[in-house]
Amino acid sequence: xxxxxxxxxxxxxxxxxxxxxxxxxxxxxxxxxxxxxxxxxxxxxxxxxxxxxxxxxxxxxxxxxxxxxxxxxxxxxxxxxxxxxxxxxxxxxxxxxxxxxxxxxxxxxxxxxxxxxxxxxxxxxxxxxxxxxxxxxxxxxxxxxxxxxxxxxxxxxxxxxxxxxxxxxxxxxxxxxxxxxxxxxxxxxxxxxxxxxxxxxxxxx
Length: 205
What we know:
The protein is mainly alpha-helical. The chain has helices spanning 19-27, 40-66, 105-117, 122-136, 156-162, 164-182, 189-192; strands at 3-6, 30-33. It has 7 helices and 2 strands.
């Protein structure tokens, strides 16, 4: 077998040393030796071939690593989706308030299923229920579908005084809804004594 042997740079005493051997010893290079009888020029060629092979393999390994062949280094890039801005909302229409409720998980499940039936979010569905309840009670000021007061609309007290029949019809309808929900009629004093119950008037400063 061929073996790598390192020649010492120290000179052996006494004998004449060829110029070629002296150069090899002074450069401290590795030499390859083989079985006796092999021509020394062949060993030199073989040594050069081995060095070229080692250097070439090192370069190929380095290139493969740099190109991501040996180690796959893929940057996880997320494509940013451009969100189309919605219509601009007027400042007075912005919903600033937040309503938080603690409810049972079963109720959440039911509300979610009913909201899905109407292709609505759960919060939007609950908001619609609340707005509908407020609109059904004729003692409340008139509000739109978002729960915002309708400007220049007559107050409930004004409506009751100006058109008692229309107010009475709205109250009868609300009373039916109240009975279905709570299994009892709405208290009559709510309309018989409007001075003791809120009819949508603004609080006095």
